[in-house]
Amino acid sequence: MSNAQDEAVTRLDSAVAEVFETMLERSCDPLEGEVDTVEGRIVARIQFTGAVDGECLLYASQATASVTAEALLGTPSEPHDPMVDDAIGELCNMIAGGWKSKLASPDSNCVISTPAVTRDGLDGYQAKFGTKFSRNYSFQGNVFGVVLAF
Amino acid sequence: MRALIIDDSAVMRKVIERALRQAGLELSEVLQASNGEEALQTLRDNQGSGALALILSDINMPVMDGLQFLEARKQENLAQGVPVVMITTEGNESFVLRAIAAGAQGYICKPFTAEQVKARVLPLLRAA
């Protein structure tokens, strides 16, 4: 991994930890190796445009997404509650914003989109960007993944 | 006390409302809007129906964003004198300066704690 990619990963780990500690009052740690979160997953996507062009994807199983929504809201959620998709989108938004805010100027002079949330998978989203890495995280045994491409 | 929360995420509107209550604000009514245009309509509809004490707004929203909302509010002379606090993932200095120039009195970056909301909001309410 290059130094630039190492730094991007460190910034991402830091952004994820901050969001979980602040908004969900939980610790969240990176996992090494591949983790299968494909089954029934929800994907949120934020795009960067400007000094940095790219995107941040967050994907989670239905079960992890429900636990995340409950932790954010402090109330139980139903499996197909639209608040679950909303919570995953907002989580991706805060992680992408946190990652962006840790970039040095002028790279931090980019705009982030509003989150788009889908249950249709990740195929083809990141193909046009030169640098891409994925990272898995776990909080209280619940696993989710983040892909950054730019 | 009445407050207006503007955010395209219903989850975040609930989280912000909870943070305001945890900050000790006694909210009699919380109006909600999912973008700037809805917020302007809410302000028009609620003119003369009791004083609004506080507006909290996201920046990055579809239809009409938070900065456009601030400009439009000023042009229509709606809820002038009501403190506006931006709550957003956009921590970039240029966004902060643009929001303040457009009439925002406070700025909170997501992610945030209830304590941070309290620290930004209470002085504005005391000064209003």
Automatic annotation (TrEMBL), chain A:
Q: Which GO terms describe its biological process?
A: chemotaxis
List the Pfam families hit by this protein, alphabetically.
CheX (PF13690)
Record-annotated membrane-spanning stretches: none
In terms of InterPro entries, this protein maps to: CheC-like_sf, CheX-like, CheX-like_dom
Which UniProt keywords are present, listed alphabetically?
Chemotaxis
Q: Which domain of life is it from?
A: Bacteria
For this entry, the protein name equals Chemotaxis protein CheX
From what organism does this protein derive?
Tunturiibacter gelidiferens
Automatic annotation (TrEMBL), chain B:
Q: Where is the Response regulatory domain?
A: 2-125
Transmembrane ranges, per UniProt, are: none
Whether Phosphoprotein counts among this entry's keywords is: yes
Q: Gene3D superfamilies under this entry?
A: 3.40.50.2300
Q: Does the keyword Amino-acid biosynthesis apply?
A: no
Specify the domain of life of the species encoding this protein.
Bacteria
Q: Which UniProt keywords apply?
A: Phosphoprotein
Q: Which residues carry this modification: 4-aspartylphosphate?
A: D58
Biological-process GO terms, alphabetical: phosphorelay signal transduction system
Cite the InterPro entries for this sequence.
CheY-like_superfamily (IPR011006), Sig_transdc_resp-reg_receiver (IPR001789), ST_Response_Regulator (IPR052048)
Pfam families to which the protein is assigned, alphabetical = Response_reg
Record-given protein name: Two-component system chemotaxis response regulator CheY
Organism (species): Tunturiibacter gelidiferens
